[in-house]
Every structure is written in structure tokens, then in C-alpha cells.
Amino acid sequence: MSLPDMHRAEAIPDAARAEIERLLQSGDLFRYTAASDAPVSLLEAEFAQMMGSRYALAVSSCSAALFLSLMALDLPKDARVLIPGFTFAAVPSSVIHANCQPVLCEVGDNYRIDINDFEAKLPTVDAVIISHMRGHTSDMDAIMALCDAANIPVIEDAAHSLGTLWHGKKIGTIGKIGCFSFQSYKMINAGEGGIMITDDADLIARAIIMSGAYEHNWKKHPSIADACARWQNKLPLYNLRLGNLSAALVRPQLAELPRRVADGLRNHDYVAAKLNASPYINVPAPLAAETRAPDSIQFNMAGLDDEATRAFADASAAAGVKVQVFGQSTDNARAFWNWQFIENLPDLPQTRKMLMTACDVRLPVHLELSDLDAVINVLLGAVQAATGTKAA
């Protein structure tokens, strides 16, 4: 049974080709050259409509969107921002870049925020970033109830969660701001890129100016131009714009999202059911309110020490399937102890324990069931090799 290429993405839809060729012929790659209907502007309108949000701003990355979100909130210098202890290093980096201080809270074995630790630390912070890490949604009912009562703004880091629902509501539309990624390993692939959405006119106006709408380029955001005018010459420019070529890659993929979400969920749940049959593997279940949109799978090794867990990952890699154990490397950007750019980095014993057994495997949405079976066979074979057991 041959293994698929686990890093290959879906082909960009043919509909992008004509627009890319037009842009190449014209050289019109800057989002603000055209008077109207530049590809980036069209993407923003289409994405906002798809998400049911009033405003969208396309930028150079999800990290840029998070940074601009914090800046647009106009937080005080050295404001404290609560983030999960399990996220990508770009999240605390964006907090520091915005002249704020990251405050880390514990995460449970199901990769979701520990609500008790979150609640205990909430009175000490000025804003919250909820990372739906690897598409795992924390209890947004509890989080929003606590934050609304305390009048603390919530930014959703939905880099991995485009297409995920919470009680039928789109992730990224629950907090004050939602931020998404178009990096190649996400549901929509532009190589790099990101987008932020909100219903707050003044907030998006500030973000537009700071993203690099210098002089009067903000007038090319006509639906929000009046709000932008108030901030002319009053905000720094960070030049985090998205280019027209990237927007041309993204726009035709929006129509593919429902099918990709369905395929990704099918793939994930098929693999999860097979892996959960092993006594050594636990794939955490979704929360009741959550409808996931996965393009990878995460699971915890059960009953194995660190050495056996490493042996499992090594055996799987040798057989052709890369398994990332989040806590078992010296440089994994998702292990909080590697964020040594944070002053007085705390220890999070619960999160640390989880990361030492938590495994991550890509499951591109285009894989067929035969591909999935090949991946499953490798993973279960690696478990047998690491534990000295035989298949039932």
C-alpha cells in the first residue's frame, strides 16, 4: 500500500489562471493601484460576505492580523494579553510586537483552554487571544460569558479553523475580531497571507491605516472611508498589505471551502476511529457545540513514557509518515518553553505534560480512503514497534 505525499496541497483552481495572467501582463500587483475592484478589495468583500461579517482586511499573514488587531484595540503600553499555553510562537510574538505582555494559561489533554485557569487569570489582563489551536475549539460559551462580564475584548486566532462552527456559528465571528491564515498548510492556500474580520467600524479603520493605507489610499475602502478619515496621519504605518497576486490565488478557493471542510472532517474522523481502537492512542473528541474543519489529526500517546513515545515517532517517520510530538524537540515553536523571548516565562505543568505525549500528523483534505488506510497502517505499525505488541 503506497503512501501519499502528506505535504502536497490541492491544486489552485483553474479559475485563478486567467486573473494571474492578466496581473502578470499588466504588472498591476499593488493593491492600491486600481481605483476600485482590485483583487485584494474583491477578496475582502467576498470573505466578509462568506463569514457574515461587516468588514474584512486582507494582510500579509495571520500573525500580521493578530498584531494589527491588538494595535487597533488601542491597548495601553505593556497591556497584558491572555493566550493559551498551547499555540504557535507567532501568537506570543504578535503580543510582544504590539508592546504588550503575554500571559499564558493552562491547556488540557484535549488541547483546549483550561477554563478554571483562564478564569483565575482573566482579572489580571486587558485583552484575550483565543487560539483554536490545530482547529480545536475551546469552550467559547464560557469564555465569552467571562470576557463580556469583565468587558475584556476577545480576538479569535482562527488560523487553523476556517470553516469550523460553534453552535452553528462560524468560528472567527464570535469574538470582537477573527484572524485567519492563507499559509500553504491551511484550508485556503496562497503560500502566505491572512485576513481579519470584525463588525467594528472604528477598529477596522484603524487597522486599515496601520496596515499601510498611506496618504489617501484608505479611500479605496469606500464602505469604511469616513471612519478612516478620522485617523489620517494619526497612526503609524506597518506596511502589512496583501498583494493582488495572492488575492487572485485565494478568491477562487473560497467556493471550494465547503467541500474541503467536508472532506477534511471525513478524513479526520475515519482515521480517528481506527487509531482510537489502539489502547496506546487517544484522539480527543470534539466538544458538543463544535463542528470541526480539520486538515490534520492530533492524538495523545497513552501509557508510554518519553522514550517509547520517541520510538513511536521515529518508527513512523522511518516508515514514511512524519509524526510531530509537540514537546519532544528542542525547537518546536508550539512548545511554550521554547518561547524564550518572553521575560519571566512561566511553567505550565498541565500543558507541559500534555505536550510531551501530544502527536500531530497532517491529513490533507484531498487524500482518498486508500491513502488514509496506508497512513493508519504506518501509525499502528509504529505503535507495535514501540511497544513490542502485535496487531490484534
**What characterizes the major β-sheet?**
7 strands, mixed
If you average the pLDDT, what whole number results? 96
Number of strands: 14
What portion of the residues fall into strands of 2 or more residues? 5-15%
CATH architecture call of the largest domain: 3-Layer(aba) Sandwich
SSE order in H/E notation? HHEHEHEHEHEEEEEHHHHEEEHEHEH
Helix content: 25-40%
Supply database-style keywords.
392 residues; alpha/beta; Aspartate Aminotransferase, domain 2; Aspartate Aminotransferase, domain 1; 2 domains; seven-stranded mixed beta sheet; four-stranded antiparallel beta sheet; 38% helix; globular
Secondary structure layout plus pairing:
Elements: H1 15-26, H2 39-51, E1 55-59, H3 62-72, E2 80-84, H4 90-97, E3 101-105, H5 115-121, E4 127-131, H6 140-150, E5 154-157, E6 165-166, E7 169-170, E8 177-181, E9 194-198, H7 201-212, H8 225-229, H9 244-254, H10 257-275, E10 281-282, E11 290-291, E12 296-301, H11 306-318, E13 324-325, H12 349-355, E14 358-362, H13 369-387
Helix pairs in contact: 1-9, 2-9, 3-4, 3-7, 10-13, 11-13
Question: What does this entry look like structurally?
Answer:
The protein is of the alpha/beta class. It is 38% helix and 14% strand. The longest helix has 19 residues.
Quick structural overview:
The chain is α/β, with parallel strands linked by helices.
